[in-house]
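INFO batch 0412 | record 1 of 1 | parsing
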Amino acid sequence: MSELADFGLIGLAVMGENLALNVESRGFRIAVNNRTVEKVDQLIAGRAAGKNFIGCQNLEELVQSVATPRKIMMLVKAGPAVDKLIDQLIPLMSPGDVIIDGGNTHFADTERRTRHVEEQGLLYVGTGVSGGEEGALKGPSMMPGGSPDAWPLVKPIFQAIAARVGPEGDISCCEWVGPRGAGHYVKMVHNGIEYGDMQLICEAYHMLRDGIGLSNDELYETFSEWNAGELQSYLIEISRDIFSVADQDGDGFLVDKILDRAGAKGTGKWMSQLALDLGVPSTLVTTAVYARSLSAVKDARVRASKELSGPAVEPPTLNAEERSQWVEAIRQALYASKICSYAQGFVQLQAAAKEHDWPLNYGDCALLWRGGCIIRAQFLDHIKEAFEEQPDLENLLLHPFFKQVVQDAQVSWRKVVVLATELGIPVPAFSTALAYYDAYRSERLPANLLQAQRDYFGAHTFERVDREGTFHADWLGLRRNPDDA
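INFO prediction complete | emitting tokens
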């Protein structure tokens, strides 16, 4: 066995430590380092005891411990710390070595760093890693981009440690995404879709609990049934489990004792901001980000709840059959809204690929998310199939499979939004998804009036439906004078 390591890893927080153990478990020798060297000693004496690890006290020792061409991965906090670490590694490494960033990095930083590292004669990979600490240990979803020449060097290790799917477990949830920042952009869209998925599930829960009165035990059974069908996914599965957990410090269920104030790490916000830059309507992630922001002002909401009234309507009294019908309606609303959310995500990927000259394979992107990651779901198989059948598919809603699903769900979807409105239950993501669907299917929207307004007050000009060209009207001169009425 070679004394040198096959792979180096810097950063031994939870994700880094688990990923290091994953790499070693696949038959690779790994060298590790951490800014606080006590973490290295603890790992080597603890979970890595007797395993094929090399504990390194500093960066020089780490680099010297890895066989060339070296493959050294950073799992440290995104931002200036990454730039500092890159600058420390570059003079220690040799031409053709690979520096890898596995953090939640903004794609623009990866674009910049790839060029910088390549200018120094090295190769660079920016890879999204999704799946949390369990995924890091057992098999995450990985979305690598960067220097194309780096892919053959990291591919054997990346595909060995990534999650695997398929009937025989022969498909790795790791494939080369594209140059420079493409991998981190795809990871960002994954996280944005995750925001949308979680908000949609929370709204379904809100309607099931407060709209039709399901208990936690009934919610558990409902989510169990959903997880056995079209909505099968990791998030539905863990939501089911949550409804079964009793509060160990009191009576009742733990979920009911948790404060309704949500946090966010920022990647959903990035997707929303970049969608605005591209001019694409990624409304679901934006709504989900704002829903978290509104949840965060808990004290203000408590004060407002004592001042502001809603509709004087009680939830309907339902028999068993009616409750079952509403549960199915909410399921269909959730499924149709989910399709809109993913459709928006892939539209944004298409726009970004065009903007940045990335040759993205959208079917492969869907497959990368099929296992290991937070949004892993059976539903993604249909997305891969859709893009395999139509690589230039403009929008998932136009594919026959998804078009039929939404058509079948449409009546129930609208009924759920109406009931929520009548009861005063906020369902911003359900409503936003439905508004997106209705706007996207509309041949004519009221933007003609908007353009007239812009031309009136700012001479921004407009186009016409009956002739080519750009026009401006003398609105003040042509208008009917109110004084003449």
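INFO post-check: The mean pLDDT is 95.
INFO record closed
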